[in-house]
Design goal:
The complex is a heterodimer of chains A (206) and B (148). Chain A contains nine helices and no strands. Chain A is mainly α and 206 residues long. Chain A has two domains: 101 residues, RNA polymerase sigma factor, region 2, helix turn helix motif (Rna Polymerase Sigma Factor, Chain: A, Orthogonal Bundle); 64 residues, Arc Repressor Mutant, subunit A (Orthogonal Bundle), CATH 1.10.10. In chain B, strands 1, 2, 3, 4, 5, 6, 7, 8, 9 and 10 form a ten-stranded mixed beta sheet that branches. In chain B, strand 5 and strand 6 form a beta hairpin. Chain B has one domain: Immunoglobulins (Immunoglobulin-like, Sandwich). The chains are: A mainly alpha (206), B alpha+beta (148).
């Protein structure tokens, strides 16, 4: 396997932890930063930006957005936070709020790209899919996630590695790499992600 | 529930092959300068279908409302730049003005007697309009993304 994208064994080196750290142990600090930012502390705001930008970027890109569109989605989430500084119901969960809002902006942008124009209000992000945002922010769980990928059989291992390490890889390229018809990539992708989700949700990780 | 996008995002974040470009957090840090202390946020509200749906190359209408005030904005994109024409209703007391903001610039416009304002040739991206009144807190519209 000479591919620079996928090395089957070992597939993943976690390296140093991203600045997000553990969302559980650092929650009081996140709440402190949010409260300080709400009363004019630019440095506190920068602290939030430093901690959560990587997770927000990865969340937007996971929808298949280009770099420019992902940038828009992430900025949109920060601007929503700016207008909501005093109304976040759970300041300790500001990271989940930011990731969830980024995901919502990404989805909205995708719909706009498809020509759908949304009007009217939407529900606040803190009610939407907290588990999904928590997974992205939990850097300690990421290691288990990759071990779950490694425990899957082919073509899931290669396909999930491609999805995660080469954003923007087209269906045709994936089909070529996996040696399958292009029309099979979508269903295979769905099946592999379903298997991974089952492992994650049941916590029967290897 | 954990969806496909969350799984891919978590794997991708851990793999570190698609790091966030430096310009993204830089813009986010700068966004804080758009904070308007004490402002009331006017959220997006629905507009009548006839004007709310963008048809062909016609303008797009957004409506924001808060504290008994509505801000209607008609958006036209010409040659990649954004023209805004708006109206504040009911017309605020004399002396009110609006500030048209993007992430990087702000333009101030006096309101006409009928509450109208306009700005042309703005770069596309995120927009918000703040209505400053002689009495009462400023009203800031929720940020809206405008791209060709």
């Amino acid at each position: 396997m000479a591919s620079p994208l996928y090395d089957p064994d070992p597939p993943y080196d976690p390296g140093p932890a991203p600045p997000g750290g553990s969302v559980v142990t650092e929650a009081p600090e996140h709440a402190r930063l949010l409260r300080a930012a709400a009363v004019g502390d630019h440095t506190a705001w920068d602290g939030l930006v430093e901690r959560f930008s990587p997770a927000m970027w990865a969340s937007a890109r996971a929808y298949g957005l280009s770099a420019a569109d992902a940038d828009d989605a992430v900025q949109g989430a920060w601007l929503r936070l700016l207008e909501s500084l005093h109304s976040i119901r759970d300041p300790r969960g500001v990271g989940r709020w930011l990731v969830t809002t980024t995901r919502r902006e990404a989805l909205r942008l995708l719909r706009e790209r498809r020509g759908e124009h949304l009007t009217g209000e939407e529900s606040p992000p803190d009610r939407q899919q907290p588990d999904a945002a928590a997974l992205v922010l939990d850097t300690e769980r990421a290691d288990l996630l990759w071990r779950a990928v490694a425990s899957l059989s082919e073509p899931c291992r290669t396909l999930l590695s491609l999805l995660a390490t080469a954003p923007g890889t087209g269906m045709q390229q994936i089909a070529t790499r996996l040696g399958m018809p292009r029309g099979s990539v979508g269903p295979t992708r769905a099946r592999c992600l379903r298997r991974l989700r089952t492992l994650v949700e049941e916590e029967t990780l290897p | 529930m954990i969806d496909d996008e969350a799984l891919i995002a978590a794997l991708s974040l851990a793999a570190g092959r698609d790091p966030v470009p430096a310009g993204v957090p830089a813009a986010a840090r700068h966004a804080y300068t758009r904070r308007t202390p004490g402002a009331v946020t006017a959220g997006r509200v629905g507009v009548p279908a006839a004007s709310g749906i963008r048809s062909g190359g016609g303008p797009r209408l957004l409506r924001f409302a808060a504290a008994g005030l509505a801000v209607d904005v008609e958006i036209t994109v010409t040659d990649g730049l954004v023209d805004l024409a708006g109206q504040v209703t009911p017309v605020p007391a004399p002396g009110a003005h609006v500030e048209i903001r993007t992430l990087h610039l702000g333009q101030t416009r006096a309101l006409s007697e009928t509450g109208h304002f306009a700005a042309t040739g703005l770069p596309p991206g995120w927009f918000s309009i703040v209505c400053h009144r002689p009495s009462g807190p400023p009203i800031a519209t929720s940020w809206a993304r405008i791209r060709p």
